Target: Nucleotide pyrophosphohydrolase
Amino acid sequence: MYNQQESYMTKETLIETVENQIVDGEPKKVKETLMRLVMTGTPREEAIQWIACALAVEIFDVMKHEASFNAKRYDQHLDELPNMDWLDD
Model:
């Protein structure tokens, strides 16, 4: 079981992670999603926050189920942004 206090990720950490993913180009889908959202009128800061939300959902699932990071599911969540119906799952 994970220690909730030790594994807590702040909003700032999530946003920093997304920014690093964009700079590194990995996963590629993160930068593509940012470009798509910005091109459709979403302010960059808001788009980054949405991407961070998708990342947080995946990280939470990893911790909850003690599983591996599911890159395919993360990509699917990114594809669905700005719709976040998967938050209800």
